[in-house]
Design goal:
By secondary structure, the protein is mainly α. The protein is built from ten helices and no strands. The protein has helices at 6-21, 25-37, 44-56, 65-85, 93-97, 99-117, 126-150, 156-175, 180-194, 198-206. α2 (25-37) packs across α6 (99-117). The longest helix has 25 residues, at 126-150.
């Protein structure tokens, strides 16, 4: 089966590892441990949606890479905290490194999510950069709320990715040059898709982004 995300996956993974390599040793080691132990399905979906939303807005995926990277690190933050809650079960960062270091890694993921946005295109205005930060912080709240509401049941990684779809697509639209109306439509589309069954969601995300705003 053809991997429709192959090009975006290569772009995202390369950016993640470059960012980790630039992180100071203590946190960098913890961050790398978490990323390498994670199933990519737990942090890629929202990032890919961010990249595709930029293309839906008529921009390039490369322009939205800082936003996609921030979504990936935000997802990793959530995965760290899920591991803390479930430390008595499957192996996680908290069982391997202890809770204090795992908490530090979660905080580092949040900081890296914000740091990633600093590489946003120079063409963005100051207000647009502030808007990008507001979207990221909104996504942080939404993913925490979604995981709390799930109360440890179901696929928590998938739950977190669904919670991030709406902010991820709004952020991708912003970085891709969409106007306010198009960004709002992408944000609403992300919310609608977050309610779809898994197979239907996969089909929507794999569709041609250039047609997203025409629906």
């Amino acid at each position: 089966m053809q991997d429709v995300w192959a090009g975006r996956r290569e772009m995202l993974q390369g950016a993640i590892y470059r960012q980790m390599d630039a992180t100071p040793f203590t946190c960098g080691q913890l961050v790398r441990e978490q990323v390498e132990a994670s199933d990519p399905a737990g942090y890629e979906t929202a990032a890919f949606a961010c990249l595709a939303a930029a293309e839906a807005a008529g921009g390039s995926a490369a322009a939205a890479l800082p936003g996609a990277l921030s979504m990936a690190f935000l997802s990793q933050m959530a995965l760290v905290f899920v591991g803390l809650e479930n430390s008595g079960g499957a192996a996680s960062l908290s069982t391997a490194w202890g809770m204090p270091r795992a908490l530090n890694a979660g905080d580092a993921m949040f900081a890296l999510a914000h740091q990633s946005l600093l590489a946003a295109p120079d063409e963005l205005t100051t207000e647009e950069r502030l808007q990008a930060t507001r979207i990221l912080d909104s996504g942080s709240r939404e993913i925490v709320e979604a995981l709390f509401a799930a109360n440890g049941d179901g696929d928590l990684a998938a739950t977190g990715q669904r919670a991030l779809l709406s902010p991820a697509m709004a952020l991708g639209g912003l970085l891709g040059g969409a106007d306010a109306g198009a960004r709002e439509r992408l944000e609403q589309l992300g919310h609608q898709w977050s309610l779809l069954p898994a197979e239907a969601l996969s089909r929507q995300l794999a569709s041609d982004p250039r047609r997203w705003l025409a629906t």
